[in-house]
Amino acid sequence: MRSAGTRRRFAPGAVIWSQGEPSQHVFVVLAGRIRVSTGSVAGREAMVAICGPGEILGELSAVDGRTRSANVAAVDEVEALVVPAARLDRLCEQQPRIAWAMLRVLADRLRQSDRRRGEYTDGPAAHRAVALLLDLAEQYGQPVAAGVEIALSISQQQLADTMAISRESLARVLRELRKRGLVDTGRQRITVLDLEGLRELGEHQA
């Protein structure tokens, strides 16, 4: 893969590609984190995933030649390997293990998508919010003195859209979690103060 691609860097917040754009390249994340989200006709944007080093993006469009199915932006400074789709096609013919590895990536993402759809979009707003916060904290949180900080440059509106609830409903849930001493919130930042307490709350809600 490295021999077939070129390295590119993206500044924090940079849009790497937008949903609906034509696709000619596959990206392999070498450093940093990338946010994947989908938009709707109403202008809402729901987060799909955060991808880090070693993950591949754009493989679906490379396979079927269709336009990008999601928006992709850098969370922090990102270095990525950019591989033209035509070169990837030749690589897969020469090295079938690459094609098999990509198939496993697609299968894993489908399973994750099914799991998240059930956890984030079913049940009361509080259940959805706690499930999402636990997932974000455990997968992408950074340990800080106060607890675990989720700093992914995601607005409360985007989080609410991810859970298919209103921003007002999310604000009420976060207010209650703050009262319980479980989280602290700031601009595009949420700190989980008591991860174990949040887990227990999630189990109680399940």
Topology (SSEs and partners):
Blueprint (H helix, E strand, L loop, with lengths): L5 E5 L4 E3 L7 E7 L2 E6 L5 E7 L4 E2 L1 H6 L6 E4 L3 E7 H10 L1 H26 L3 H16 L1 E3 L2 E4 L5 H8 L3 H13 L3 E4 L2 E4 L2 H11 L1
Antiparallel strand pairs: 1-8, 2-7, 3-6, 3-8, 4-5, 4-7, 9-10, 10-12, 11-12
Helix pairs in contact: 2-3, 3-4, 4-7, 5-6
Provide a descriptive summary of the structure in words.
This protein has 206 residues and is an alpha+beta fold. 28% of the residues are buried. It has a 4-stranded antiparallel sheet. A 4-stranded antiparallel sheet has the order 2-7-4-5. It is elongated and about 55 Å long. The chain has 2 domains: 94 residues, Jelly Rolls (Sandwich), CATH 2.60.120; 84 residues, Jelly Rolls (Sandwich). α3 runs antiparallel to α4, α4 packs antiparallel against α7 and α5 packs across α6.
